[in-house]
UniProtKB/TrEMBL annotation:
Transmembrane segments: 28-52, 64-82, 88-110, 122-145, 151-171, 183-204
Lineage per the UniProt record: Bacteria, Pseudomonadati, Pseudomonadota, Betaproteobacteria, Burkholderiales
Residues annotated as domain GGDEF: 208-385
Species this chain originates from: Hydrogenophaga taeniospiralis CCUG 15921
Database matches in InterPro entries: GGDEF_dom (IPR000160), Nucleotide_cyclase (IPR029787), Rev_trsase/Diguanyl_cyclase (IPR043128)
Protein name as annotated: Diguanylate cyclase/phosphodiesterase with PAS/PAC sensor
Keyword terms: Membrane, Transmembrane, Transmembrane helix
Domain of life: Bacteria
Length: 394
């Protein structure tokens, strides 16, 4: 059990270092404090550190569990959306958390004045107090599930494991007769299961919040459907790629992928399919090009990829072939009427390889786009407006 808790704490710490967000820090604090409360009740600290003073252990056993319960109750309310989602649940979890924190401090203070012979009733009181946040959290989660929160049902399962965990640890701490190795094994198992479910749910909700925050503050110059740079932002990215490649004395390749039939399903499937196609094609291009290349949207039909080539990277031809193969694959889109339509991208690719030292991004992009258009509008695809005609002789 201790190994599982340390592993989850390490993962939570890695999430904090990687994302540096309040939600990640909250998840780490929850795992550390609640996990410490569980470990204290197992008796492991006395085994690992026999020199620990008994008064300190009594204070930890009496106060750390209720304090972790108060913190967990408040975090559940925050996880459920706080006041912006449900004022009743927010008041329940916030007020309950404050009251439980005060009670936890009171229990800790009483434990400092309690000797070993009179500690059992205080530990029973701590166990009763620690079950209160479990019940309150269950009420809050059930209400959230009824109101439509899709993750609340999984959190309810975690709280069921929490109730079993709290009961098992306090029964073990009180040394209730009749409890054997099976009860300890069950308690350790539900402890790890609870922390695993709660940590995963916390990470998922934090990821959702980060995604919504990123979309809500979509940077200027980014396409709203694909989040790719466009307009002046794209030119800035291309110019920076040229400058970086020129410093390394390498060549740069600009690839334009022109999607000529982007709007062919607009009449039959509705306007929303364009966004689905753009998002899918952008994901395919990013996957084929990798994360080191600049990927942007020159205009809705034209994607841009800037590749900095050196002797350690695969040949540009392989990257272009991979782009052509992945982007040209058919895809399925869903119309406004929930019907599915097949879409086969009609693709033209223009490739310009150059020395970026004195290159101008706009001229290079226009040149690559003209090549892509020429591939799309080849002789076999010329429309009637591209064919030169003359009046018949009299």
């Amino acid at each position: 059990m201790l190994g599982g808790l340390l592993t989850l704490a390490g993962l939570a710490l890695a999430d904090v270092l990687g994302n540096r967000s309040i939600g990640s820090a909250r998840n780490l604090m929850f795992v550390v404090v609640t996990g410490a409360a569980s470990v204290v009740m197992t008796g492991l600290p006395e085994v690992f550190f026999p020199a620990l003073p008994e008064p300190l252990l009594r204070v930890l056993k009496a106060g750390l569990g209720p304090l972790a319960g108060a913190m967990g109750l408040y975090f559940v309310g925050t996880w459920l959306g706080g006041v912006r989602e449900d004022g009743l649940v927010h008041r329940l979890t916030t007020t309950g958390g404050i009251v439980l924190a005060v009670v936890a401090l009171a229990l800790a203070l009483v434990a400092t004045q309690t000797d070993r012979e009179h500690f059992r009733p205080l530990l029973i009181a701590a166990a009763a107090v620690n079950l209160v946040p479990v019940l309150m959290a269950m009420v809050a989660v059930i209400r959230a599930a009824q109101l439509g929160d899709p993750m609340a049902r999984w959190m309810a399962l975690a709280i069921v494991c929490l109730g079993a965990m709290v009961s098992g640890h306090y029964l073990h701490g009180l040394q209730v007769p009749g409890l054997g190795l099976g009860t300890q094994l069950f308690t350790a198992t539900v402890t790890v299961v609870f922390f695993l479910i709660a940590s995963v749910l916390g990470l998922l909700r934090n990821r959702q919040n980060r995604l919504l925050a990123r979309l809500s503050r979509l940077q200027a110059g980014a396409d709203p459907a694909t989040a790719l740079p466009t307009g002046s932002a794209l030119l800035t990215h291309v110019e920076h790629a040229f400058w970086r490649t020129a410093r390394q004395h390498n060549e740069c390749t600009v690839v334009c992928l022109y999607l000529s039939n982007l709007y062919e399903l607009a009449e039959s499937a509705g306007g929303s399919v364009e966004h689905q196609i753009l998002v899918t094609v952008a994901a395919r291009i990013r996957r084929a090009a990798g994360f080191r290349c600049v990927v942007g949207l020159y205009h809705p039909r034209c994607f841009v990829v800037v590749i900095s080539a050196d002797r350690h990277q695969p040949p540009v031809g392989e990257v272009v072939a991979r782009l052509r193969s992945m982007v040209a694959q058919p895809l399925t889109v869903q119309s406004d009427k929930q019907t599915h339509h097949a879409f086969l991208p009609s693709l033209g690719i223009g490739v310009v390889t150059l020395d970026p030292t004195h290159a101008k991004p706009m001229d290079v992009l226009n040149n690559a786009e003209r090549q892509a258009l020429a591939k799309v509008r080849g002789p076999e695809r010329a429309s009637e407006h591209d064919i030169a005609t003359a009046p018949a002789p009299l």
